[in-house]
Write a structure and sequence with these properties.
The complex is a heterodimer of chains A (114) and B (109). Chain A is mainly beta and 114 residues long. Chain A has no helices and eleven strands. Chain B has 109 residues and is an all-beta fold. The chains are: A mainly beta (114), B mainly beta (109).
């Protein structure tokens, strides 16, 4: 297992288009998180899955954003009708369920909306 | 007031210096404390993880937590140019993890 994997690494899209990102967590990690990071800022929480259940969503996650984790393994984050303000690094992290364990991040997907 | 305050720097030090990075937080409920290193255009990499007040050492890195003051620190001894990166503090309670803005560090040869 090589850690958390995210695809694509970079995405350039025109305003108004839909985009989808994929995250493959570390195997056996039950928890999966999505974060957004803009330049000069720390990651901001978007949403959290425990297995296939989406248990928490940030107010940052507008109705244009949707995330899934259909089989409790990989997850997808879709942004519909992208706006320039959506340009950011989208980070995925995973951790074990038991206890308060550390979270490991993927390399992120850098989105640029033009 | 932000939940986690971290001086963004930038911080520039000569090679071999001791570096001190700090964060303060407002919510005493946070129980777990982490430091991540992030190179430009990469994902954060976990450096240190601790859940108790006191010091935790790992090689050249020492994480320090003072829960009474709601203050956490990361010390880097014998800093190297390869330590040049942004350092993020992160505080966690169950599913909730909050980050500081990150401090950009440059270690000059």
């Amino acid at each position: 297992d090589t850690g958390v994997s995210q695809d694509p690494r970079h995405k350039i899209t025109k305003r108004g288009q839909n985009v989808t990102f994929r995250c493959d967590p570390i195997s056996e990690h039950n928890r999966l998180y999505w974060y957004r990071q803009t330049l000069g800022q720390g990651p901001e929480f978007l949403t959290y899955f425990q297995n296939e259940a989406q248990l928490e969503k940030s107010r940052l996650l507008s109705d244009r954003f949707s995330a899934e984790r259909p089989k409790g393994s990989f997850s997808t984050l879709e942004i519909q009708r992208t706006e320039q303000g959506d340009s950011a690094m989208y980070l995925c992290a995973s951790s074990f369920l038991q206890g308060n364990t550390e979270a490991f991040f993927g390399q992120g997907t850098r989105l640029t909306v033009v | 007031q932000k939940e986690v305050e971290q001086d963004p720097g930038p911080l520039s030090v000569p090679e071999g210096a001791i570096v001190s990075l700090n964060c303060t937080y407002s919510n005493s409920a946070f129980q777990y404390f982490m430091w991540y290193r992030q190179y430009s255009r990469k994902g954060p990499e976990l450096l240190m993880y601790t859940y108790s007040s006191g010091n935790k050492e790992d090689g050249r890195f020492t994480a320090q937590v003072d829960k009474s003051s709601k203050y956490i620190s990361l010390f880097i001894r014998d800093s190297q140019p390869s330590d040049s990166a942004t350092y993020l503090c992160a505080l966690k309670l169950n599913n909730d993890m909050r980050f500081g803005a990150g401090t950009r560090l440059t270690v000059k040869p």
